[in-house]
Amino acid sequence: MLDFQLATLERAGFIARRDERIVWLRDAPTAADGDAAAALVRRLDRELGLVVDLLEHSVRCYREALSGDTDSIAVLYPEGRPELMEAAAQVMFRRSIGGPACSLLARWVAEQARATDGRPLRVLEVGAGNGFLTRELMAALAALPDAAATITVTDVGRAFVIAAQRAQRAPRPDAVPAATFRVLDISLDPTGQGFEPEDFDVVCGLNVVHATPETARTLGHLRRLVAPGGVVALVESVRQDCWVDMVAGLAEGWWSYADDRLGSPLRTASAWRAQLVAAGLEDPVALPGTVGDPSDCALIMAGRPEPVDGGGLSHREQALVDELRALGSAVEVERMDLRDRDGTLCAVAALRTRLGPVAGLVHASGRIAGATAANLRPDDVDTEMGARVRGLLHVLDALAEETLERVVLCSSLNVISGGTGQMAYVASNAALAGIGEVLREHGVAAHVVHWDRWRATGLGQMFEDRYAALTGHAIGGGIDPSAAAAALGDIVAYDLAECAVSGSPVVAPAWPPGARDAPALAEPPRVDADDNAVFAQRLIAYCRRTLELPELSLSEPLLDAGADSLDVLALQAGLVDTFGVNVYSAALMTEPLSRIADACLMPADGSATLEVVAPEKLGLTLSGGAT
Predict the structure, then answer these.
(1) Quick one: pLDDT band at residue 142, thresholds 50, 70, 90?
(2) Alpha-carbon dihedral of residues 559, 562, 567, 571, nearest 10 degrees?
(3) Which end of the chain is more exposed for a tag (fewer CB within 10 A), N or C?
(4) Rounded to an integer, what distance in angstroms lies between the CA atom of residue 472 and that of residue 607?
(5) Element (H, E) at 124
(6) Which of residues 280, 303, 326 is at a domain's end?
(7) Phi first, then psi: what are they for 258, rounded to 5°?
């Protein structure tokens, strides 16, 4: 946030940054100038004055928020209440193209529901937030017969999900009977949160994907949820406005992006189209989509390819199969999830029955998560290790009775050269070298090849599309697929156990020594309170009642019990009003309630403190967009 503020002042010509010094170039407007401008806006446009109220409130709290004296999110939601933020958001939504875009999307969804034959259209809304898109969807679907559609409304914030559910329960003409409400963090694998793959026909959201650390990975999660032939539809802000960053930038999640975005979490409409293609979706469109269009929002849509034959192949996959057959190869396609050991064993056994003995294996499977060390999560490691490493071991198990003559393991050049945000990717590829060494020890002619990017092929094509969308020109380097095929022939002919193939000299980076320790988050102020045991029971009863949690134990942090950051802010304010106890929100989220109760009791000498070290779970919540 501070970097953004300094950059804004520099662009406006007020300061210049020279090394570590800041030089003022001209006088800034006075507070009186700002007050006069705000008063003029309120006089000319009372509704827009609500936005000015939020902006002024945010600016007044900068010092406390940036110093850490106040939780940044508490500025936007004082005492956990959303009224200030919602009032301004509603004003801007009515004046934004985002409103018409949501209406258009809702009408399109209703038309798809009318055209669905024999079963209801399955709609998933992600990142429901304040409910702007939710209300449009509900109104459009309520006009249809009850069996025409189902809708599942989700958000990473439990408080938003509860608010949407309460709104649906209230008597209203736009109520949809077949509506469900669930918590979902789209930055994480949805199958680990109780959602089934390919379970929805339409997956849609308003201004939510940009709020995740890596949009490419998030779009991959959404693609997994949408069925073949289904559509991912997003309404996203595509224009950077300074005042939005000045307000939304107070939320930690606004700056939590850890991918290729620079200076803002927002992307252009053309960049979103490239991202959707890279995620495995087809025929992306954006409205408005003209380069240089001044619109603040766009509706971006793309479809998941529908199988075109009994083998479940897309058009591109079928073209590759046809090319191989034209070269005289007999080709069979068997889809399998290599992470599923039992499924892999069964599928390989079926192939052996049809084809006979297996003499060789080429392993090029894998997925990419992408995360810097600061944002690396367990599901990132699982994504990288899943098909690439565990999947390979499952296939080798399935071929244990075979006498393999040759195995080719496709690794990445980044094992040697490194790459920003590719720690787990490099580790999983390096593991292939170890497996290749073991195979060699058992008499198998194994070759581990650390490939440079194959131009216009597979993951290389996805990277090239993404680069072009961001920079406006093509990336150089990489290797031609035909040259790579010739290189593979040489590798096999010369029986090379491990090698790198690159179109340019390979330089290994010099890594800086040392690592940063996680800082302490806070020490909550402590005041006199009741006897510990009595206070602990009062505390747990109050938390359960306030957060509407059916079960809650003293050994459980609120984060594990299902609370989110807005829940905690409301609870924090309630503890002050009810018990006179002020506890820092980070402690409320991550510490067991028993320790919170202990911390709230002032010892006789007044010397004890509650130190809260930044835990991994809090990092997951923040980077997942809960703030």
Answers:
(1) confident
(2) -70
(3) N
(4) 60
(5) strand 121-126
(6) 303
(7) -130, 35
* CATH at 358: 3.40.50.720
**Residue bearing tokens 């004046």:** 95
- Between helix 565-579 and helix 532-547 the angle, nearest 10°, is 130
Closest CA to 534 of 526, 525, 542: 542
Number of structural domains, the chain? 4
Cα separation, 550 vs 4, in Å, equals 42
- pTM over cut 0.85: no
Residue 585 sits in a domain whose CATH number is 1.10.1200.10
The pLDDT tens digits of the residues spanning 262-284 come to 888 999 888 898 889 888 888 88
Judge whether 266 and 239 are in contact, CB under 8 Å.
Answer: yes
Residue 19 lies in a domain: no
Tokens of 98: 């985002």
Mind listing the pLDDT tens digit for each residue in 405-448?
Answer: 999 999 998 888 776 667 788 888 889 999 999 999 999 999 99
pLDDT band at 44 (very low <50, low <70, confident <90, very high): confident
Residue carrying the six token digits 């020594």: 513
Q: Are 245 and 202 in contact (CB under 8 A)?
A: no
Model pLDDT for residues 61-99, shown as the tens digit of each residue: 888 887 777 777 778 777 667 777 888 888 887 888 888
Domain termination residue (choose one: 472, 501, 530): 501
